[in-house]
Predict the 3D structure of the following.
Amino acid sequence: MRTIDLSPLYRSFIGSDHLAALVDAATRSEKQSTYPPYNIELLADDKYRITMAVAGFGKDDVSIEVQENSLQISGTKEEKSSEERKFLHKGISERSFERKFQLGDHVKVLAADLENGLLHIDLERVIPEAKKPRKIEIGSNLLENK
């Protein structure tokens, strides 16, 4: 496996050690399953939607959890005995799943909806006023204003 040298980033990004840690963790982690398939859509400048195909799962079968900057979506389905149903072809997977998304700073989950086998999760990046860019006038002393 190839390794990535992040030392050039340290010269131009100050205080971004967490970014390097995320990249390092992503390169070391095992490959995540492709089930269930999903889309990430940009709705507006700071609004996003994750749409996940969860055919056969109901609202009670799906769990959405946000912790710090991590979004975890999991689905559990009760296994029915094979004696009850006999398939000639089984193309719809009913297996349990877990998918994790790493959220950027200040990204909040707004809503979730399950309709026609598609799980929609709306997100928005809300940057606090203190974090927004501001113009600093030359000759002003920021310490005097505190």
Observations:
- Helices lie at 7-12, 17-28.
- The first strand starts at residue 38 and ends at 44.
- The chain has a mean pLDDT of 80.
- The radius of gyration is 22 Å.
